[in-house]
Amino acid sequence: MMKLTELETGGISMYDVQDQLRQLVYRLSLEAFAAGDRDRDAIVTREQLETRRKTMRAKLLDQLGGLPATDTPLEPCIKGNVAFDGYRVEKIVYQSRPHTFVTANLYIPDDLRSPGGAVVFVCGHDPLAKHSDGYQKVCQYLVGAGLIVMAIDPIGQGERLSYYDPDSEMTTVGWGTGEHEHAGEQCWPLGDGIARYFLHDIVRAIDYLCTRPEVDPGKIGITGNSGGGTQTSLAMMVDDRIAAAAPGTFLSSREAILLSGKPQDAEQIWPGLTACGFDHEDILMAMAPRPVLVLASTEDFFPIEGTRRTVERSRRFWALYGDASQLVLFEDEAVHQYTERHAQEAALFFAKHLNGDHRSVRHIRPVPVEPSILWCTATGQVKGEYAKARAVWEENRDRVVMLERARNRLSEQERIHKATSWLKNKVIDGRSAGPLNPRYLYSVPVEGEELSACSVIWRSQEMLLGHALVFRDLHSGDSNLPVSIAVWNGGSSRLQPHMPWIREQCADGRIVMVLDVTGTGALAPNPVNAYPVDAPFGTIHKLAMDLFWLDDSLAAIRTFDVLRALDMAQCLRGSVCSDEDIRVYAHGTFSLYAQLAAGLDRRAVRLEVIEGCRSVGEWVEARQYEMKDRAAAIIPGMLRYFDLSDCLAWGSDGTQNREKGE
Predict the structure, then answer these.
(1) What is the DSSP pairing of strand 658-660 with strand 607-610?
(2) Which DSSP category does 659 fall into?
(3) Rg, Å, the chain Cα set
């Protein structure tokens, strides 16, 4: 006899299921990395390199949803000038998209005699962004070397807090990583990535620099570290106007980052690119033969061994053009930051390659100023200055409407065909199901209940086992009974809140299968990093994002788990199930998997959804939402084909479906 608490915390003996999801993700990723290495190793001509470069650029842009239009008038406004010793700073606001205002500081040397080189400086994760002490110092080194510098605030940092409320002067979503993840997760169902907006702001910054008489449009560089290194890398792959680049403390290798267990921000996740063999070598390759300085810190959490391997393997791409010395790696013995030594090396690098200048920077003594001196807005926030200011959330809201209109323009038959074909491709195609091979681990009475509980595992797909706790009335004897499958958050680890329903079903003469979808209940994974397993950036989040890179998703895997549970219900010991006998009860955010399964398999038509999501589009349109479990509830691009309400309509055969709650 077992207590409910023992059932909730019980594992699966003899089988290592805690590592099965990680092992699947890592195996598929490592195979893709090896294939990418082979493809790059086969490049022996400039023509092959150019083909690879164009292919990776196209795949990146396609997976991010393409770039927004670049025809919005910039309408730059110089909000003021501040004079310093040897240079001045113009405080600029430009419009990258309609009502999307980007704040920038333009550092201009006093001794300019003719149009010269300019550097776009993109910031890493710092709440003050371009006004932080460290980043002011970098800009001062660069301008001290005779370079024009345009430092821009990224989304969610500096003067661009997207969820800032002018009345309370507070933000409802945390700066930087908090914002990037909050708005970024809402981009995925649209088939977009938030990186498209980071990248677009940079493209428009270069557009602006090309209008300035002080700037030679053929001599524009870019640098930044951490999140700024990500932005620099994106620009290196996409904008051919960049004459030189110095990505900092980001470039490593996909394998080294994967195996470190380190999670990444939404703008650093590029869906589908691992599946096509992409690695950080492709970022560097995109610049050959233009000069690149890779800035690294030996004690960085971005693995230095990955950085060294990537740079060393990439030198030969420059050698194809006759000068491998144009790719340089500079390492500082430091932790994750844009160090002063990095800044000095970057200043010398850009001065040489953009201006042909070899002046020393030893004399420069950077002195950061109080941030408000360099503010481009009176309040220090765009949303406090411009009543109609937009951010990514507003973009996503409009994209939901646009996609819904596009879907509605199709005939019902065409819409259903396209949607079900796409969903089948994401959930079923390419998975090796094979025989279920069920195993019954134990069967015991439940203390204080008129029920027995049986632990059952089966093969859901190659490398992944499925699991359920199976309940039936102790007084049912050896009778063969119909089955109700339960899908809810936490699976078998969350029995107690659902016991009234389990008792009711069993008393009505049914077997109840409490399903553990991949990564939950008895299948919960071991942690791969220091975050709680199911918290933002924890193990589930990280593995879900790794699946995005593989052009897969945890939501698709879990939907497949439900389909395999339908198979299992028909061969479960003690069951007597035809298609009409199976019922599916879905509760909470995990009801998504049952709803998607209902769109693919008519056996799941008898579906009861309690307090589940009725519309992914409505979630994307929500300004505030609960982030827990969201990474595992997304199939990127879904809203291009359907919303959840469509699934039940596809599966409907006149059976009454019941839905309660939000």
Answers:
(1) parallel
(2) E
(3) 28
